[in-house]
Amino acid sequence: MSLYRDQGVVLRTIRLGEADRIVTLATRDNGKVRAVAKGIRRTTSKFGGRLEPMSHVAVQCWRGRELDIVTQAEVIDAFGRVRADLGRVGKAYTVLEVVDQLSQEGHANAPLYDMVVGALRVLEVGDPPLLVAAFVLKVLAAEGAAPELDVCVACGEDSELVAFDPVEGGALCRSCRRGRPLGPDSLALLRAILRGGLRAALAEPASPVTDDVSALVTESIEAHLDRRLRSLHSAVVR
Ligand SMILES: [Zn+2]
């Protein structure tokens, strides 16, 4: 067994035995880590409330064969304002769930760690309607699965794009259209998020357009996770 230090965001915790919890973290250097926090459910626990979902922490752990063991935890960001607002809590949990599904044990993913910390910090100081959509789009782009937004994803023509199909993975022209209708304002916002216009997109007030973009991005991540699940499944079956 060896000792290591890392920083991570707590994705979830589950009870273990009488007094312990297994804490799942998305870390910077060790990917997804599952570690036992011993005695954490006792009122006298040295961990206090530091290892709650959403907390950004610096940890020291023993590396175990199956599960690691947390020996120290210090809070970097507690995200108190997010926790005090149910609407923001919901958004934060959506972000954590996406990270949980995409991160893998034993695979360092510093960009994903940076993105989740960044998203939670934005949420701590405000409540942008497009926070989750922007986060998910950036994550998809980092996975090499950003939706096609320049040419029709079906025929490759550089013509007016009027529809969006999350399963196909992008926008569609008039002759190939299927999926959901795509207005020019939604298309412009999607492009802005992926191309340096993130700050402006996050300042966008809630509107039917931001609702549309959020719905479309949610369908895109669901389609992506579904594809990943299928490819993982076929890899296992093989
Ligand atoms: Zn087409």
Structure description:
The chain contains seven helices and eight strands; from the N terminus they run βββββααααβββααα. It is α+β, with helices and mostly antiparallel strands and 238 residues long. It folds into two domains: 3-80, OB fold (Dihydrolipoamide Acetyltransferase, E2P) (Beta Barrel), CATH 2.40.50; 128-237, no CATH class. α2 packs antiparallel against α3 (110-125), α2 runs parallel beside α4 and α3 packs antiparallel against α4 (131-142). The longest helix is centred in the C-terminal third of the chain and has 30 residues, at 208-237. 36% of the residues are buried.
Secondary-structure blueprint:
Blueprint: E1 3-16, E2 20-27, E3 32-37, E4 56-62, E5 68-77, H1 80-83, H2 86-102, H3 110-125, H4 131-142, E6 161-165, E7 170-173, E8 180-181, H5 184-194, H6 198-202, H7 208-237
Parallel strand pairs: 3-5
Antiparallel strand pairs: 1-2, 1-4, 2-3, 4-5, 6-7, 6-8
Helix pairs in contact: 2-3, 2-4, 3-4, 4-7, 5-7
The structure holds zinc ion.
Summarize the structure.
Helices cover 40% and strands 24% of the residues. It has helices at 80-83, 86-102, 110-125, 131-142, 184-194, 198-202, 208-237; strands spanning 3-16, 20-27, 32-37, 56-62, 68-77, 161-165, 170-173, 180-181. It binds zinc ion.
